[in-house]
Amino acid sequence: MKNFLATALLFFTVLQTQAQTNVQSIGALGNGIADDTAALQKALKDGKSDLYFPKGTYRLTQTLEFDLAKLGHSSVSGDGTATLLMEGPGPALRFRGTHGGTAAPATIKAQVWEIERTPMASGIEIVGKHPEADGIEADGTMQLTLTRVTVREARHAVHLVRRNRNVLLADCHFYHNTGVGVFLDAVNLHQINITNCHISYNGGGGVVSKGGQVRNLQIGSSDIESNHSADGPPTANVWLDSTGGSIAEVAITGCTLQHTHKAPNSANIRIQGAGKDAGVESRTGQDATNEGHVTIGNNVFSDVQVNIEIQNARGVTITGNTFWEGFQHDLLIEHSSHIVVSGNNFDRNPRYIVNGFQGAEHNGLIFRHCSETTLNANTISGALENAAALEVSDSRRMIISNNSILDSDGAGLFLKNVSDSLISSNLIRDDRSPGTGTRAIGLRVEGGTGNILGTNLVKDR
Questions:
Q1: What pLDDT, on the 0 to 100 scale, is given for residue 232?
Q2: What is the pTM of this model?
Q3: Which residue in 78, 379, 412, 452 is a FRET match for 249, CA 20 to 30 A apart?
Q4: Domain spans of the chain?
């Protein structure tokens, strides 16, 4: 029976390989010495768009261009034993389609379904050997699917440009690239899922979306770490920058986002919500927007300058997360509205003294120029060398309730020029031993009108 199964598996593997174009059968050597570019480009010119790479190291000096309108359905695959060395500028693989519609069926041309849909790469490694070498670029695609792909030592691992729809990235490693792990570069893209990936040590950021029009971005169950450069400009493990465009309808769930506080102004998540939308302008006469509808849930955050930074956004929910080692702040939220922060744990476990940073991180939460915001049922502990563990200033229509604010320097809760707000049922106290940290009153209020300070349990130290 075992022999039968082994034979059947071998037979199936042979059939599968024969159904694809084994690149070694069309002249690619994969010996790491010869330049395989010409042989692979000839295969594409001859209409062979289903390339299978067996074990080997394949040198490329130019991009492999998959013109989907000419080639039809296209894929690049391997079993994890093939490496593509990109020794020239540009992407190792470029998938270019003609899809100009949305994800709605009525907008998709027959040609896209019949010959272009679902370009795919799986089971390969791409290694950059040129300062401007990228991994995979996509433009005009419908249902781009990347699985079990490794990209390292390149510039950008995945570069999405101009227009794409319904992108899937799963079970991939985007590691130690000088640029961005997954770069949504002024792209018009709705529906993209990034799941079960390791996105780490990319100097330009982990998942970065800048400008364009992006909707329905899901980032889940991934490890996203150390995507900063100590010498480069500030970036973030996840960076959503709507400047000049609009980025909204985003879910970041079940991920670990960490490292490194050693990079200047590093953040785990940075949201810059001030955008522009021509559709809004045509209806209201103004194109400026505050983007949002973002959910950040059930993640682990640590070891950056600011764990989550939000500017000029409307509609962000932060719930069920664990925070520590925000060296400047755990949360910094400014000029934003309709924010919900609920059920989070902001606390540095003492066992992390082994990291050698004891007392260096400030942690704490800051809200400035915010409105229509709720903070409920959070635990905030161990904020150091701040004016307060939770500081709210120049804000209105805030609800701050049922929070535990404990054992921190400065005030527990500091309200400065806060109006029309409800503060109730908070536990605010500092039970650290005398001589530890700085002393201040538990609840400090300066200025503001129209507030209700309900029942709070406050113990000054």
A1: 85
A2: 0.94
A3: 379
A4: 2-459
